[in-house]
């Protein structure tokens, strides 16, 4: 009775096996087992020594000896004969000489167009020259200094304000003196929101107001002169050779840019730089050469000294 009940219970239970049941129950889940591939794994590719396993049928390498050769025998090299239509290639030194243009092209290809200052391959020779670049980092065109023979010298840069309805407007005023040191000089003033723009404006204004300074062969004034502009008053005197320019402030700058080497100058009025520079220009404009005076009077120059 007990045995029959156990066999019945074992037949009803599917997933379990019993020593009393005559049939083994099959499991529900099947597991996939991959088959081994012929290609070796990746980690074996990193170690080539593991690719050649020792098999039971492998035999050691056999050494072959040449019984017909004598190792002590001296062998001679017997090269093959040249064919009849063989043409020997030309030597490196026998080739045609390279022209200077070919050499320049080779150097330009190695070192760039700026090596020789001229291009043979159509490159830009000013690619590394910062002085020739026309644009700044913001894309604005650079205004290069005009090469007209005039030197520029800044006398003064001041910050000025203008009171308007909404407040104050800040600007910069620059005073610049230009001259070629050959008798031509000019004083200019300009205002802008930036210092560089103010200097450029004043330089343009100075070139529009050029005057000629009368000088003798000793690079001094022909006679005394005085000039005033506003509250400024300037006195100019000729000097002997070797004296130099004895003056100060804006007067000295104007005389040096004009090319005067021996002169005396004195500021008698205001210390304003712009008024003193313009007073110097007024004093210089009053001067006249001896030849001009003699021509106006209609007499020779020798009679001026009598």
From TrEMBL:
Key word Transport present: no
GO molecular function: mRNA binding; rRNA binding; structural constituent of ribosome
UniProt keyword RNA-binding present: yes
Coiled-coil zones: none
S5 DRBM domain mapped to chain residues: 150-213
Region (Disordered): 1-21, 61-84
Keywords: Ribonucleoprotein, Ribosomal protein, RNA-binding, rRNA-binding
A Gene Ontology BP annotation from the UniProt entry: ribosome biogenesis
UniProt xrefs under Pfam families: Ribosomal_S5, Ribosomal_S5_C
Any single Gene Ontology cellular-component annotation: mitochondrial small ribosomal subunit
PANTHER family: RIBOSOMAL S SUBUNIT (PTHR13718), SMALL RIBOSOMAL SUBUNIT PROTEIN US5M (PTHR13718:SF61)
Family per record: Belongs to the universal ribosomal protein uS5 family.
NCBIfam families: rpsE_bact (TIGR01021)
Name used for this protein in its record: Small ribosomal subunit protein uS5c
Organism (species): Anisodus acutangulus
